[in-house]
Structures are given as C-alpha cells and as structure tokens.
Write a structure and sequence with these properties.
Length: about 60
C-alpha cells in the first residue's frame, strides 16, 4: 500500500502549505515510499536476526 500523491499533498497542507503542485506531491510521495520500504526491509532483517517471523515495534524503531 504505497503512499499516494493525495496523501503527500495532505501532509504538505497539514504542515502549512496553501497550495501544492502535482510534481511536488509526486516527489514527496516517491521519497516517502522509498524511505518506508528501506525502513521496512531493515526491520524485517532485524526480526530475522532475532529469529522471529513477527516484526515488532522495536524493530521499526531500530530501523530508523
């Protein structure tokens, strides 16, 4: 479930942007998706290293 341009646009508006271009929303969505997938991949590796199949909150925190 990737982060959409609409979600990125809502984030930008929540932090104060009055208007957001489609290209800005697309760029932010792309960056957020890449970061989320990198973080998730690290969290899965941490869980596997701990010999667990379940990814826990601590794995996500360590993956930051």
């Amino acid at each position: 479930m990737p982060i959409t341009k609409l979600t990125a646009k809502k984030i930008l508006k929540d932090v104060g942007a009055e208007r957001v271009s489609e290209s800005a929303a697309a760029e932010l969505a792309g960056i957020l998706n890449r970061l989320a997938y990198q973080m998730a991949k690290k969290a899965v590796k941490l869980a596997a290293h701990a010999k667990r199949q379940t990814v826990k909150k601590a794995d996500i925190e360590l993956a930051k």
